[in-house]
Design goal:
298 residues, mainly alpha, 15 helices, 74% helix
Length: 298
């Protein structure tokens, strides 16, 4: 990890990479659709996550092959096998937990509780990659966490249900995924790193879905279209672009932009599946967007 930290620290010192920032913005926008798409699955939550990972692998393999960026070599893959496997396991926990959380809470709650992930990621970036975000990032993250709590209805801990607990687990796992992917991106291009970690996630989630006794095969056109969109668009496109960004910009900036994802998801859920937004949710969303504006790159 020390060598990866040195490589990534040198890149961070070069300043904000416009390609990385563009990839981050596009990836965040695409991933924001995931919480809505999950509502249309006609398989179990773990099975849906397994389809998402499995279908992303061939799309990412094609992207990796035609990419003009750094080529992955067997030596590089072996050298970064550890963080790739850990990233895959972390994302399996993240996606499985997030999909499960939606069976016990609404899209807005699950997404906004996920704002804990950027805070953990920023702390991890400072500890492991010597990335020290501007001072304004910390109050912005605190403000976003406040907005998340407002969005969730300002519930006391005793009223938090199992869906919210799974959403919190997903947030911790996603923060770990970002940090492991950042380490892997020191020697691999974004598409290859995402593909290999997705393959690990797919295996774990398939086994978990089978052991859980879930329905595995979609039985409707809507179900097949949903898993295709989750795999080819949400993960291969959205998460692939985020992985590109993770290797080119500081993890603190990644965390700040990710903060905008939950408000967008809630708005999309309101527009597409007519999931109502309460006054508190609207206020919380506005607070989070204000936090993103506060911590924007100068």
């Amino acid at each position: 990890m020390a060598e990866a930290a040195k490589i990534l620290s040198r890149r961070a010192a070069a300043g904000i990479d416009p390609v990385g920032l563009t990839a981050l913005l596009l990836g965040t926008g695409i991933i924001s659709w995931s919480g809505v798409l999950v509502r249309f699955l006609d398989v179990g939550p773990l099975a849906g996550a397994a389809w998402r990972m499995s279908l992303a692998v061939p799309a990412l393999a094609l992207w990796s092959r035609i990419s003009a960026g750094r080529r992955a070599t067997p030596l590089n893959v072996v050298a970064y096998a550890g963080p790739l496997i850990l990233a895959g396991l972390a994302f399996a926990v993240d996606v499985g937990s997030f999909h499960t959380s939606l069976t016990g809470t609404n899209v807005a709650n699950a997404s906004f509780i996920g704002n804990v992930a950027p805070i953990i990621a920023v702390i991890g970036g400072a500890l492991f990659f010597r990335e020290h975000p501007p001072a304004r990032v910390w109050p912005a993250l605190a403000l976003a966490l406040l907005g998340s709590w407002v969005m969730a209805g300002m519930l006391p801990p005793s009223r938090i249900g199992y869906g919210d607990a799974f959403a919190l687990l997903a947030a911790c796992a996603y923060a770990s995924y970002l940090l492991f992917m950042k380490q892997a991106r020191a020697g691999l291009d974004g598409a290859t790193a995402t593909m290999l970690s997705a393959a690990v996630s797919a295996i774990v989630l398939i086994v978990a879905a089978v052991l859980h006794g879930e329905k595995l095969i979609p039985t409707s056109l809507t179900g097949w279209v949903t898993v295709a969109l989750l795999g080819f668009v949400s993960h291969a496109g959205g998460q692939g672009l985020t992985s590109v960004a993770v290797g080119r910009v500081p993890v603190g900036l990644v965390a700040v932009v990710i903060l905008a994802q939950p408000p967008v998801t809630a708005i999309l859920a309101w527009l597409v599946v007519h999931e109502p937004m309460s006054t508190l949710q609207m206020i919380g969303g506005a607070v989070i967007l204000a936090a993103v504006f506060l911590a924007r790159p100068k």
